[in-house]
Specification:
444 residues, Alkaline Phosphatase, subunit A, Gyrase A, domain 2, four-stranded antiparallel sheet, 20 strands, binds zinc ion
């Protein structure tokens, strides 16, 4: 754990995907997270639009909004070809935190942070995220690969198990957490200035076992608690191993809540005549060019689809609905009992700014707590009971925490990036958009 360069402080970041601030606070108060409680006090921060990991961590790892880094979700539709694409680090239009730190002479180790596939060549080490199809293609330098194999490193459990064998899936989630822990502590003695380790399994646990965590009668309740006990132990071990002059910063990217119902926006848009499919299918690629709107998960609504120029909304503008019509339709959505299904309908220009915002959705919707926004491409009802997932993301209720220090509440994940530079005692790059979460002596 030698410091690689000076001046400045070393910083260790542990990011816990989708761990809510309220969940941590309740757990600390109940004595379930003794190590987290000792480390510091979590404060609430908000996520991004939409509140999904790829967008939120792309925002953190560039320090700019999606309108400038260019990633708006896990899935995109190529407007020219109709093909589905999965944005990766290759789509980022703005420099990464790791490269910004390298430019300031700081060596960086990055493990498992979403949107780090394909891995960048760094002064340091990068182990890619769950987007990586094969570990051999997800590590720089490649010479690290035998060491990871020896430690039985795992990126992601087999997702099909979530539907077929929940007990086995839970076991794999735990095994993946333990594999990451082995590698983390194996790499810790390497030289670094920033070490960031990302735990993705908290998100998986929360999606598939959130209700089990709340229900003491569930057969998986104890396993849920054991998983979080191990997360807390990991925090304790980090705290014990890192000397007091190393800064320790924890954060999550969005909150979680229980799912009451799934709301399929494409079913609604089809029902209202905005969306139709071509002959022979109902997949994304089959959306008819005459369609006036469609949705991609979660809660992204795009107008039109024809033409090859993203954001141009095609060639028949006069036939397309105004965005206002759709906004009003969506804002009035209710569950049948008078309860609004959407908490917010955000216009593109309210959510994003920058050169890449022409790729942005026209509207971003946040479901009311419990209403999980889907965008299916097969016929079905607008509202349905939750299928596999009992937990859903929330925009609010993410957290940030600094070892032995205080942070200001009320920020967003965009503010975490300048916080990194402040914690390391480094100048904040001018193009970053957020404001540090540290109590302020200067404007940032
Ligand atoms: Zn998730």
């Amino acid at each position: 754990m030698r410091p690689r360069s000076n001046p400045g402080k070393r910083l260790f970041i542990l990011s816990l995907d989708g761990v809510p601030c309220s969940f941590l606070k309740e757990g600390i108060a109940a004595g379930r997270f003794p190590n987290l409680g000792r480390l510091g006090e979590p404060v609430e921060i908000a996520s991004t639009f939409p509140p999904v990991s790829s967008v939120a961590w792309a925002t953190f790892s560039t320090g700019v909004n999606p309108g400038r880094h260019g990633v708006f979700g896990f899935l995109e539709l190529d407007r020219a070809t109709g093909a589905e694409t999965i944005p990766t680090a290759a789509n980022l239009c703005s420099p990464t935190l790791w490269k910004m730190l390298n430019a300031q002479g700081k060596r960086t180790i990055v493990m498992n942070v979403p949107l780090t596939y394909p891995p960048q060549e760094l002064d340091g080490i990068m182990i890619s995220c769950f987007l990586c199809p094969d570990l051999a293609r997800g590590v720089t330098p490649r010479s690290l690969l035998p060491r990871l194999r020896r430690l039985d490193y795992r990126i992601e459990p087999d997702p099909s198990l979530a539907a077929t064998d929940r007990g086995a899936y839970l076991g794999e989630i735990l095994a993946t957490l333990r594999a990451e822990r082995r590698v983390l502590f194996d790499l810790l003695p390497e030289p670094w200035d920033l070490f960031m380790a990302h735990v993705m399994m908290t998100d998986r646990m929360n999606h598939f076992f959130w209700q089990d965590g709340l229900d003491p009668k569930s057969e998986f309740h104890e396993a849920f608690l054991r998983f979080y006990r191990e997360v807390d132990e990991l925090v304790g071990e980090v705290d014990r191993l890192l000397p007091a002059d190393v800064e320790v910063f924890l954060l999550s990217d969005h909150g979680f809540s229980s799912v009451k119902a799934e709301v399929d926006l494409n079913a609604l848009l089809a029902q209202e005549g905005y969306l139709c499919y071509g002959d022979g299918g109902a997949g994304l690629a089959d959306i008819a060019r005459s369609s006036r709107a469609y949705s991609l998960i979660p809660g992204r609504v795009y107008l039109g689809r024809s033409g090859g120029n993203p954001g141009s909304h095609g060639t028949d503008a006069q036939e397309r609905p105004t965005r206002e019509d759709i906004r009003v339709l969506l804002s009035r959505l209710e569950n049948g009992g008078g309860k609004r299904l959407l908490e917010r309908v955000v216009l593109r220009e309210e959510a994003y700014s920058g050169d890449c915002s022409s790729l942005a959705p026209d509207l971003v919707l946040l479901g009311s707590p419990g209403y999980d926004l889907k965008a299916k491409t097969s016929p079905g009802p607008v509202m349905a009971a939750p299928a596999l997932r009992s937990g859903m993301h929330t925009y609010g209720d993410a957290f940030a925490l600094r070892r032995g220090g205080t942070l200001r509440p009320g920020g967003t994940i965009l503010d975490a990036t300048p916080t990194v530079f402040r914690l390391m005692g480094l100048p904040i790059p001018q193009h970053l958009e957020g404001t540090s979460l540290l109590p302020s002596r200067s404007r940032r």
